[in-house]
Amino acid sequence: MEFRKGLAAGIPIGLGYLSVSFSFGILAVSEGLSWWQAVLISLLNVTSAGQVAGVGIMTSAGGPIEMAVTTVVINLRYSLMGISISQKADRTLNVPARLLVANFITDEIFGVTCGRKEDASRNFMLGIAAVPVLGWTLGTLLGALLGSVLPSVVASSLAIGIYGMFVAIVVPKAEEDRTILRVSLIAVALSCLFWYVPVLKEHVSTGFAIIICAVVAALIGVFSGDHGKKEGEAHG
Amino acid sequence: MDNTRFFILLAVMVITTYLIRAVPFILFRKKIENRKIKAFFDYIPYTVLSAMTFPAILYSTDSIIAAAGGFFVALFLSYKKKSLLVVAIGTCLATFILSFALHMAGSL
Exposed/middle/buried for A204, CB within 10 Å: 0-12, 13-18, 19+? Predict the structure, then answer.
């Protein structure tokens, strides 16, 4: 039952991944990896920004230390997400279950899991991961093999889908909760600073910028008054 | 790139990615009681996604104008509480139609 609920929740994510990982497949091959290397990277990592950076290091003169440091910085947000999912975990999500599903914590799986009213169980997490991991791997394979065949206007329009999905996670929640609306807008404003102010753009990597924007915006929400209370009391 | 180097770098990447996900997920198993810390972790999902989406969404396709159109369609459909899949497809479709139209206009 929980597994099936998870499976259903994972289908739109998996379809989104199919298109995004398609672009990753194209990118990896165009940078000089072979198709099976691109597929292996996607199957084992299941990250977007982290993989793109990883391929960059592999195909330049990068070494293991640069790889480790870059991966940590870009993927640090998953640590925060893991703690957030912990807050919604029920008893079936024990240590062995967590070891099993940990690698499936992605932005979207996390967003959907935390956006639900229900607790997160082991079977839900396994279910929600199934289609996205398949879609992510399959999309990479298709992109690596067929990338050069597709007209660029089609390929480029597919790449935006994942962001549409992010919008669909944030907006309904922001409509319900004023503080979430406020912190989301603050995060966007900060992210624009990192994007458009040259000094910041040149010196702060994408992974770091996201962490700084997210943490600062959330902290402003926490210390600006009417937080948390309704959340705990409405459901509890 | 030779296979030995690929597999070494792949292993470093995979192990680091796994640890950064698994370690905090396993260590922080207790529910947080402190209201402020709890609120922080309630907000984090939305601030992360917001920061990742804007302005990056504008540069995710060939044309900023087409992407902006897709973004507005995403906002509208989400505001109307459409499902994730509907919003994602609507966003892609709007972007595709706009970039196709711009492409045609450009080639006239």
Answer: middle
Residue B108 confidence class, pLDDT cut points 50, 70, 90: low
Q: Do B47 and A99 touch (CB under 8 A)?
A: no
Radius of gyration (C-alpha) of chain B in whole angstroms: 21
Residue B87 · residue B77 · CB < 8 Å: yes
pLDDT mean across residues, chain A:
86
Do the chains contact at B21 and A75, CB–CB below 8 Å?
yes
Tokens of A103: 């690698």
Residue contact A163–B91, C-beta within 8 A: yes
Cα(A204)–Cα(A224) distance, integer angstroms: 27
- Rounded to two decimals, the ipTM of the complex is 0.84
Nearest CA in chain B to A173: B46
Assign 3-class secondary structure to B32-101. Answer: CCCHHHHHHHHHHHHHHHHHHHCCHHHHCCCCHHHHHHHHHHHHHHHHCCCCHHHHHHHHHHHHHHHHHH
Q: Which residues contact B103 (CB under 8 A, 6 or more apart)?
A: A153
Which residues of chain A lie closer than 8 angstroms to B73, CB-CB? Answer: 164
Q: Among A86, A158, A219, whose Cβ lies nearest the Cβ of B29? A: A86
Contact status, residue B85 vs residue B78, Cβ threshold 8 Å: no
Kindly report the nearest CA distance between residue B46 and chain A, in angstroms: 6
For residue range A99-137, what is the model confidence (pLDDT) as tens digits? 999 999 998 899 899 888 899 999 999 999 999 999 999
CB atoms within 10 A of CB A189: 14
- What pLDDT does residue A181 have? 96
| Beta carbons of A67 and B9 less than 8 angstroms apart | yes
Scanning B45-64 for CB atoms below 8 A from A yields: 45-57, 60-62
Q: Assign 3-class secondary structure to A192-226.
A: HHHHHCHHHHHHCCHHHHHHHHHHHHHHHHHCCCC
Site from A69, A116, A166, A195 to mutate, B interface, most B CB atoms within 10 angstroms = A166
pLDDT number for residue A201: 85
